[in-house]
């Protein structure tokens, strides 16, 4: 492990305490994440590792999509000078409001017919008034350069436009933390770069799971996951070198 402290610090933090994730199988329980304790306070955290190593499970713990079988997952938020602590089990709805999640395949996320309707849907709780919701949705599309696609069917958008819209929909609610699980995997180089640039420029704390080591290298801290364990936690360059070493052995 290497010393941290080269990157910027977020106003939020993610706290895993003795977290274990296991799942039942036909004969026994299988452990997907072995006991893990982490305090993630960096602005941008990347998570790398081989297929099936447990990266998505780790990412999904952060917004409560996966519940810990043991231990706790907490979110610390700065709110008006005070700290607010949320627990993913106890405070599920509040955690989901404060931790946005972007999936690999935006089609899994875009469920309304048009771009503006999709953003409006994610604003239904924060903006009860229809006109205010519409205005906020337009502003969100404009922020991401998608306003010209407002009334287009989401099915006609390109892969890059869909992923950008998925990110816009999630960010429209202004979550404190954004978790993205392989957000560039399905994109060509230009769109992968565009989404990567966007994620790395957000004011929110960002946790990105990725096989794109160039993207991972732009984080402030990188976790390497192998066989359900964090096997390296430190500076991105050192973490990527560690991952490359394990692959070439
Ligand atoms: N609910 C579940 N029941 C049983 N096994 C599971 C469950 N969820 C995940 N697993 C297993 O746990 C392991 C880790 O899965 P996970 O999706 O977290 O890996 P990953 O590192 O994100 O993989 P990839 O890079 O391929 O997306 C895999 O072997 C997967 O099959």
TrEMBL record:
One Pfam family, please name it: ABC_tran
Instruction: Work out whether the entry's keyword set contains Transport.
Output: yes
Keyword vocabulary terms for this entry: ATP-binding, Nucleotide-binding, Transport
Gene3D superfamilies per the UniProt record, alphabetical: P-loop containing nucleotide triphosphate hydrolases
UniProt domain ABC transporter: residue ranges? 14-249
- InterPro entries assigned to the protein according to its UniProt record, in alphabetical order: AAA+_ATPase, ABC_transporter-like_ATP-bd, ABC_transporter-like_CS, ABC_transpr_CbiO/EcfA_su, ECF_ABC_transporter_ATP-bd, P-loop_NTPase
User: Which GO MF terms are attached to this record?
Assistant: ATP binding
Name the family the entry cites: Belongs to the ABC transporter superfamily.
Question: Which protein is depicted?
Answer: ABC transporter ATP-binding protein
Task: Tell me which species this is from.
Answer: Leucobacter alluvii
């Amino acid at each position: 492990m290497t010393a941290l402290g080269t990157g910027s610090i977020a106003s939020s933090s993610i706290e895993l305490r003795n977290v274990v994730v296991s799942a039942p199988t036909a004969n026994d329980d299988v452990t997907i994440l072995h006991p893990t304790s982490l305090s993630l306070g960096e602005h941008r955290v990347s998570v790398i590792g081989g297929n099936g190593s447990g990266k998505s499970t780790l990412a999904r713990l952060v917004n409560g999509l996966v519940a810990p079988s043991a231990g706790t997952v907490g979110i610390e938020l700065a709110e008006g000078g005070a700290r607010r602590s949320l627990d993913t089990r106890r405070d599920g709805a509040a955690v989901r409001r404060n931790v946005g999640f972007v999936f690999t395949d935006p089609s899994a996320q875009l469920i309304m017919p048009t771009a503006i309707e999709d953003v409006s849907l994610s604003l239904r709780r924060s903006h009860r008034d229809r006109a205010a919701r519409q205005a906020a949705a337009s502003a969100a599309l404009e922020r991401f350069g998608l306003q010209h696609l407002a009334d287009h069917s989401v099915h006609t958008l390109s892969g890059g436009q869909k992923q950008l819209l998925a990110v816009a929909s999630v960010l429209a609610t202004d979550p404190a933390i954004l978790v993205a699980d392989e957000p560039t995997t399905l994109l060509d180089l230009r769109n992968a770069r565009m989404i990567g640039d966007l994620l790395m420029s957000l004011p929110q704390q960002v946790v990105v799971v990725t096989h794109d080591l160039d993207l991972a290298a732009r984080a402030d801290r990188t976790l390497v996951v192998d066989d359900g364990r964090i096997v390296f936690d430190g500076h991105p360059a050192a973490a990527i070198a560690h991952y490359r070493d394990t692959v070439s052995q």
